[in-house]
Design goal:
This protein is of the alpha/beta class and 211 residues long. Strand 1, helix 1 and strand 2 form a beta-alpha-beta unit. Helix 2 crosses helix 3. It starts with a strand and ends in a 5-residue tail after the last helix.
Length: 211
């Protein structure tokens, strides 16, 4: 019997798990992002990108910057980085956007870019999820950029061979300066390309086509 696939992207956390309980046993449910909860294929492609450029996870300092509280990408990345033995994971952002319970997951919480990016090997910038924000969690996009936007000046605090990643779509001038997004440290374009290969691999594995 050939495999059937159910690929779900949903605004509600937990939707793929609910669906998985109600489909026939041979149907594979792939989570393509659910609410604030998880984004497993983005996590996989992010790990593939880091592996490609850095090889060894056990020596890395990784900073995840921005709207962590609304980010399913951040959650998946933190789980994956921890599993792969990254010794220092930092969550960087304003108090309103970085949940306090992260330290229980072994993550170092930083509320300034200076502390968060210093000597980092990998910087993962997150998109500001305006559509998931309720009320005044941020003074303004301009204020956010001033404090937490990634500019060439701030990036100079990181390691000279630091790579910059972003799950996209990028808000230029909000999370990241165009000079950085298009600069020599940015691996955002290869990251997107790897994403296609990683998601094809997931589908291929499910379909049992190991060739």
């Amino acid at each position: 019997m050939h495999a059937d696939m159910f690929i779900v992207r949903h605004a509600e956390s937990g939707a793929p798990y609910l669906i998985a309980q109600h489909v026939a046993p041979h149907v594979h449910v792939v989570n393509a992002g659910d609410g604030r909860h998880a984004h497993p294929t983005q996590g996989l492609l992010d790990m593939y990108t880091i592996r490609h450029f850095k090889r060894d996870f056990t020596q890395l300092r990784v900073a995840i910057v921005g709207d962590i509280v609304h980010s399913r990408v951040a959650r998946s990345d933190i789980h994956a980085l921890t599993t792969l033995g990254v010794p220092e994971i930092r969550a960087v952002g304003p108090k309103t956007l970085v949940p306090g319970d992260l330290s229980a997951m072994g993550v170092r919480v930083c509320h300034t870019m200076e502390e968060g990016i210093k000597d980092a090997d990998v910087v993962i910038m997150l998109r500001l999820q305006n559509e998931r924000m309720s009320g005044a969690m941020l003074p303004s996009a301009g204020e956010f950029f001033k404090s937490f936007g990634l500019t060439p000046e701030k990036l100079a605090l990181a390691k000279p061979d630091c790579i910059v990643m972003h799950p996209g779509p990028i808000n230029r001038g909000v999370e990241i300066d165009s000079a950085v997004a298009d600069g020599s440290h940015s691996v955002i374009l290869p990251q997107v390309t790897f994403g296609i290969a990683v998601r094809m691999a997931v589908m291929s594995t499910i379909a049992g086509n190991q060739a």
